[in-house]
Amino acid sequence: MAHTCKNCGGSGKVVCPRCGGDGKIAGETCYYCQGEKKVECKACNGTGKVDD
Q: What pTM was computed for the model?
């Protein structure tokens, strides 16, 4: 049975670990999130759900 992912709260996205959610690194657009400030949650592969 699938449950809500505790890592992302079910959104499928987490704060970018490279820029800390700023969208920029040293004044440039973050290469990791492309300025989106969030990235796909690795724990649930962006689905927001995890299996038991």
A: 0.84
